[in-house]
Design goal:
Chain A: Pfam families: TctA. The complex is a heterodimer of chains A (505) and B (143). With 505 residues, chain A is mainly alpha-helical. Helices cover 74% and strands 1% of the residues of chain A. The chains are: A mainly alpha (505), B mainly alpha (143).
């Protein structure tokens, strides 16, 4: 039982007063960020990464703080789904289907409490899945050479658009833009400057945090400016009579949570599937299995429990490839990867062997965060509901200013702030044009690593390209990459049709 | 039409990118692949995807009216001015003005927006500078 011993060490790292305090602050901030309209987990964490970084916290406490924020934001996202019928992020969309009708029936408190419990169950068991599955994947990953890694990065890009991607060409544009940006700066292997146009500031390349904050947070401000009066969300003054879920309701939904968790975890581990597919499949299956009286879509508690467990389990499952291979499978894990890289930690098999305290400390932090979120959410949901009513006209300026503070803190340079504004404008245009932002981020994050592995492979083979498909593992990864790229063209059409058929009425 | 512009712009970008990547000076010691090949390959991939978007565009997105576009341009100008104002006037004053302007353009009344601007600036200064000891821009008056 090596794994349990390592996990115990992880808890020993995580369980200090300072770390527990940070986890509490993180969970609290995260839930608020998730609940606020216009701030999802991805951009919420993006704003806080530079801040945590400039605070100079050591790796483990910083990790604990930020993962708590991240998990908190996932929890908070469901509050607006249930009360306002506005999903905080894409995976929370399925929660609106039965969550909002429950609010209309006057069961908002029950729906919130139930979804809190379902989120906890999903995330908790998915973390156990992570504990046991990740070390197995690490054993495989230790056999990887540079050629296999290059194939793996390609796989990540090929599948990142996701199974429900709208346009693969736009996902390719996004990935290529990201990679192109990553190439700027001094080449690590030969020391020659590339694409810097003689600008000294560009010699070190463009820091990925500047790009992330610009693309996510600043572009959000521009999106809000499109609508006169910052279009405040609907009235959130739903009556909350009770904030606990009655025991019979919990009992009735146990099966839904269990099924949602398993499906969610599996789709989280698969590259490209992610949390959206997890909650979608969990909901559809539940509806097919249990909808005997036609109550789904009209406020059935099982229709809240299954997708909530599913999307939180998927969020845990998505951490498996991210930690074990260093290749994120979804947008939200890409932001987590950025967080690790900002702390100078490179995920991958070597992390498990060389810095086990970081990995297991992180996993222990996930467990602690989960428990805290459950405890925090049940009594304090009333406060979070009030946060929903902060109008965008005061919130968005604050978000913009905090973004500036974070990036300014990194280097104190005006040049970086200007680059961030440029990314904000670019992010706004790309979002309007339906070009996904996550491949851009991933391109910037992984570009240099991808090129380094390709060049290493070719150095080993002295320029012979056939080394790239020279091993069975590499061939397998290439086949998966091609399948993953082609599949959305076929499956996506069916899935989208179904999704809109379910969401429409 | 928007997608065709996107495709055309990306195609142009990829051409420029490949051109500038090819200008990279290579020293006499290099690995077999060298520092040029990967950026050029990325440029080619970008060009291919851009061509596809150019010829098979998606449905048109909903663009805001010209007036709202003006708002976004105004916000960009304010933010750029802010980055230059930071070292001149210090954090609190620059931020109050910028946050106030943004809040005003997002629909707050002039008085409410000014209050919001000052509150945001002072709030951030107190939390990040005084409590968390983060480095903020310091103007001639030390705040």
């Amino acid at each position: 039982m090596d794994i349990l011993a390592s996990l115990g060490d992880g808890f020993a790292v995580a369980l200090t007063w300072q770390n527990l305090g940070l986890a509490l602050i993180g969970c609290f901030l995260g839930t608020i960020i998730g609940a606020l309209p216009g701030l999802g987990p991805a951009n919420g964490v993006a704003i806080l990464i530079p801040l945590a970084f400039t605070l100079g916290l050591p790796a483990t406490p910083a990790l604990i703080l930020l993962t708590s924020v991240y998990f908190g934001a996932m929890y908070g996202g469901r509050i607006s789904s249930i009360l306002l019928n506005i999903p905080g992020d894409e995976p929370a969309m399925m929660t609106t289907l039965d969550g909002y009708p429950m609010t209309q029936k006057g069961q908002a408190g029950e729906a919130l409490a139930l979804s809190g419990v379902a989120s906890f169950v999903g995330a908790f068991f998915a973390t156990w899945g992570l504990v046991f599955l990740a070390p197995q994947l690490v054993k495989v990953a230790l056999l990887f050479g540079p050629a296999e890694y290059f194939a793996l990065f390609t796989l990540a890009f090929a599948t990142l658009g996701g199974i429900a991607a709208r346009s693969q060409a736009k996902a390719v544009i996004a990935a290529a833009l990201g990679l192109a940006i990553a190439m700027v700066g001094v080449d690590h292997q030969t020391g020659v400057p590339r694409l810097t146009f003689g600008e000294i500031h560009l010699y070190e390349g463009i820091h990925f945090l500047i790009a992330i904050v610009g693309l996510f947070a600043i572009s959000e401000v521009f999106l809000f400016l499109e609508h006169p009066n910052g279009s405040a969300p609907g009235d959130a003054r739903a009556k909350l009579n009770r904030l606990t879920a009655p025991l019979p309701m919990l009992k009735k939904t146990t099966g839904s949570m269990a099924r949602g968790t398993v499906i969610g975890f599996l789709s989280g581990v698969l590259p490209g599937a992610g949390a959206s597919l997890g909650s979608f499949v969990a909901y559809t299956l539940e509806k097919r299995l249990k909808d005997k009286e036609g109550t789904f879509g009209k406020g059935d508690p099982r229709g809240v429990a299954a997708p909530e467990a599913g999307n939180n389990a998927a969020a845990g499952g998505a951490l498996v490839p991210m930690l074990a291979l260093g290749v994120p499978g979804s947008g939200t894990t890409a932001v987590l990867l950025a967080m690790l890289m900002a702390l100078n930690i490179t995920p991958g098999p070597l992390l498990f062997t060389q810095q086990p305290e970081v990995v297991w400390g992180l996993i222990a932090a996930l467990f602690i965060g989960n428990v805290m979120l459950l405890l925090l959410n049940v009594p304090m949901v009333g406060l979070f509901v009030r946060v929903l009513q902060v109008p965008a006209k005061y919130l968005m300026p604050a978000v913009a200013m905090v973004s500036f503070v974070g990036i300014y803190g990194l280097s104190g340079s005006t040049f970086d702030l200007l680059v961030m504004i440029i990314f904000g404008v670019g992010g706004y245009l790309l979002r309007k044009l339906d070009v996904p932002l996550v491949p851009v981020i991933l391109g910037i994050l992984l570009g240099n690593e991808m090129e380094k592995n390709l060049r290493r492979a070719l150095t080993i083979s002295d320029g012979d390209l056939s080394i790239l498909w020279g091993s069975p593992i590499a061939i397998t990864i290439w086949v998966l990459a091609i399948l993953g790229f082609v599949a959305p063209l076929l499956v996506g059409r069916i899935l989208r049709a179904k999704k809109s058929a379910i969401v429409a009425p | 039409m928007s997608d065709r512009i996107l495709g055309g712009t990306c195609l142009l970008l990829s051409m420029l990118y490949i051109y500038f990547a090819a200008q990279t000076q290579v020293g006499f010691i290099s690995d077999p692949m060298g520092p040029k090949a990967f950026p050029i390959a990325v440029g080619v991939v970008l060009a291919l995807a851009a061509l596809y978007t150019l010829f098979k565009p998606d449905p048109e997105p909903v663009w805001p009216h010209l007036g709202r576009f003006g708002e976004i341009v105004f916000a960009v100008v304010v933010m750029v001015a802010y980055t230059y104002a930071l070292p001149e006037f210090g954090f609190v004053i620059s931020t109050s003005v910028t946050a106030g302007l943004l809040s005003w353009r997002l629909g707050a009344g002039p008085v409410a927006a000014s209050i919001a601007g000052v509150t945001i600036a002072v709030g951030i200064f107190v939390i990040f500078r005084l409590v968390l000891k983060l480095s903020l821009a310091i103007g001639p008056w030390g705040f």
